[in-house]
Amino acid sequence: MAESEAAGGSAAFTHLGTQVRTALSERGFETPTEPQRAAIPPLADGKDGLVIAPTGTGKTETAMLPVFDALAGEERFGIGALYITPLRALNRDMRDRLDWWGEQLGLDIDVRHGDTTQYHRQQQANDPPDVLVTTPETLQAMLTGEKLRKALSDVSHVVIDEVHELAASKRGAQLTIGLERLHELSGPFQRIGLSATVGDPGEVGKFLTGGRGCEIMEVDVGSRLDVRVREPRITDEDETLAGKLASDPDLASHVRAIRDLVTENESTLVFVNTRQTAEALGSRCNALDLPIGVHHGSLSKEARIEVEDAFKAGELDGLLCTSSMELGIDVGRVDHVIQYQSPREVARLLQRVGRAGHRSDKLSSGTVLTTRPDDTLEALAICRRAHEGLVEPAEIHHGSLDTVANQIAGAVMDFGEISARKTYDLVTRAYPFRDLTADDFRDVVRELSDNRILWLDEELDRLEKSGGTWQYFYANLSMIPDEETYTVSDVASGRAIGTLDERFVVNFAGPGETFIQRGEMWRIAEVDDEESEVKVSPIEDPTGEVPSWTGSEIPVPKPVAGEVGEVRGWVGEAFESGESRSAVAADLADRYPTDEYTAGEALDPLEKQVESGSPMPTDERVVVEYEPRSVVVNACFGHTTNQTLGRVLSALLGQQTGSSVGLEIDPYRIELDVPRGVSGPDIEGVLRGTEPEHVAGIIELSLKNSDALKFKLAQVAATFGALQSWRGNRKFGRDRLLAALDDTPVYDEAVREIFHEDLAIEPTGEVLSGIRDGEVEVVLHTEHTPVGIDGRSSGRELLAPENADASVIDTVRERIQEDRMLLFCLHCQEWDRTQEVRRVPDQPECPFCGSTRIAALNPWAEEVVEAVRADEKDDEQEKQTKRAYQAATLVQSHGKQAVIALAARGVGPHNAARIIAKLREDEDDFYRDILSQERQYARTQSFWD
Q: Which processes are annotated in GO (biological process) (predicted)?
């Protein structure tokens, strides 16, 4: 920075009035921070702005000092400024931080959110504060209240904290229209956005202001990072710890590395990518009596506040946390951040490590602890990209139709009646909806009218409130899908422990089963579906079944996976030219922030790949490796592109063969379980022969039979008012729902949302174009390779020992033995009987004809029996009949063992055959394989058929 610029920056506080400058002196703010130097002058001048700077560099004051300056001494009845945060916990923090300024400047600061008492709300309506800290959803409710509308008419400033978080969600899309509704009420107001990381500031600025122009004031975050990537080396101590933790030495080394780093620093945040990892590591830390707490979104509010306060007070040295701690909740000073396993995205690394070292002269210090080769290479790529400032762009929800429906109802609530034209103009002023067509808008209005959410008078171009408008709008203040959760309560104390997702409860949570929450072990005593409550009691067992949280895996972006592919490319060439592993490791450690041991461990499968003579998959080379019934497409394209490409392959191969194709993906591989006879050339044929422009159509057709679309359709239908409540309409089957809503805006939005959140249509088309044009090479290999096989463990987090605890296996065994199965003779087709698995003989046979060709089916599978007995069968009955004969073949060959495997949750004949075929030393391993398959089913059932 030139001297004149530095001098101008240091004079930033001179742009503020005397009263604010006096308060600054009393607060000890003598010198502005870098974001304050850059942002205060334009913000004090009333300009809209986006402030991007690391957490802890005074962003809140950067935004609020000019706002306070504008408000101080003004006479007004209503609210002068809104401070909008995405989390209620941030509301609490902001209130604490802003109160002091309010007292000094004679301004009233208050908070309002969903838990604010009715009495307090009434007080705010009668005597509005000068500054109100609130959430996006609460603003929606406030816009419809008569007294509050009067209070909001004085708003002249809106500050949106963590704007990147809102820009990438439907909550944010809803807020942008909400701000336009506020604009109708109050006139123009200053808009200020705050964030620690933004990949595309220009787009987020337009999101914030509706494209009206926005000053971007960005402080470089990447250059302030001091992050190292390392894989813990197993020591003699880890062998001892493994016994104490009931784990393998690998996991013991990870826990020991966390312990050592926490000990070396005064206060450490340990970020993990999933809640189950937080719980599992927390239980191990608890076993070692380490002063480390657990913090994630499924813990009760009281439990979260308890550990936040303990960490802030120094009673805890570390906090194991998920994204719940990314958004700047105040837990005091943080010296160091540990990221356990790759953070998956540059933005997450910057958000998380940026929480450490909150001083203008200090770097943010962090360590990424990795667990396997892909994990290490991915983390290295992310660290390099972070230093370069290559942050992922915000995935704005453009044109989400259920958001439009929600906000049309909001506008009708605001005005009582409003012209359709005016509502359309209001909605399309918001940046995510600028391209919404009049036809799409009209379809949404008609859908709302058909659902009796509002009255539509097409002749007069008028929308009016109906009897259902109020109830609909307040039931849909939030765009977060309403999914049922179960409260977890301690039987002895009645204390709330946390929550479990409904899907986990349905699939796994039966009486007697164990799981981890708050880093402690619990055994389920009772599941109360009426009260949505799981009653538990604590146990001392150090291992157990970890909750299968609904929270989806953080997707690795295509550019990150591509850089991993680039590294594979030059490493492969180095090994092929005869360089030693130590020399290549030294080169990798020189290029990236890691040590030679970690680099060497990451190179292991790559060195083996070259030694085996196998082609190296890179960012420009797809390697299709295949053996009978099993194909791995090595593709360095990231999660969503591989998900999309895998779905195209699965759909087209299934169509060609008439059989289902199993699919599992990670950022670097697409694994396919294919019918007999399908091999590498068939995969290559699909990759070369699929037209890029057909990807969306292929995917949409394949979605028609998937649970993903039906589940999403139910959620979207609820936000359109087509269903009063998805949970309350379970008996209205999903297939019927699909048929009823096909060719409606509800269906269009459900498909759009799946495309937006889970898939990557355009990048997949680019990959296929690259293959067609020769820019991406496709190579076939007739056996599985070290790199391809390495993906088998990539999705498994190191949470528990390879051999699950004996009590877990006993629970699985007991549960399956108590399950009931429908036995059906396929020879005479006369005999069928439902009985407990434990009562099934070693070799079932028909009491009528003596045949051993007995199908073992789920007890509710009467339609399968009907399908087998039908003279003429439709396609679905043919499929059911085929599965019944596959199951009978297994039972005929393997007797009761096949019945047990088929009784497991989500295990069909194909997977049961794979489980049975494995060679084992004891029966426990058989049940471990069943448990592994059940867990895989629980993770993937929401997306696949």
A: DNA repair
